[in-house]
Amino acid sequence: MVRALGTFHAVSCRDGASMERDGEDYYAVNELETRGPERQFEVQFGDGIWMLARQEDLTERPTLRLLSDPRDTLSR
After folding, report:
1. Phi, psi of 18 (to 5 degrees)
2. How far is the C-alpha of 41 from the C-alpha of 35, rounded, in Å?
3. What does DSSP say about strands 25-32 and 40-45: parallel, antiparallel, or unpaired?
4. What is the CA radius of gyration of the chain?
5. Distance of CA 61 to CAs 7, 17, 31, 33, 75, Å?
């Protein structure tokens, strides 16, 4: 099973295609080289379509760590 990396939200882009994708999960992401200070990405949705997005459009899912990871401690 492929897990979503995060969710797309149409914050900076308000065009029709972005609004239709608002709230959809994305499964692949590539950061693009830019000349300005703003970070841009391309994200791939579950249907295989890629779309450009800015950082404020993307909500990442937390990464799961195994409980056997020594950085994890359980308080008892």
Report:
1. -65, -40
2. 13
3. antiparallel
4. 16
5. 8, 23, 17, 23, 25
Collapsing DSSP states into helix, strand and coil, what is residue 6?
Answer: strand
Q: Write out pLDDT tens, residues 22-55.
A: 999 999 999 999 998 999 999 999 999 999 999 9
For residue 68, give the amino acid letter. S
Tell me the whole-structure pTM to 2 decimals.
Answer: 0.76
Residues in the chain: 76
**What is the DSSP secondary-structure string of 16-57?**
HHHHHHTT-EEEEEEEEP-SSSS-EEEEEETTS-EEEEEGGG
The tokens of 74 are what? 């359980």
Instruction: Report residue 4 as tokens.
Output: 């979503």
* CB within 8 Å of 60: residues ≥ 6 apart: 5, 6
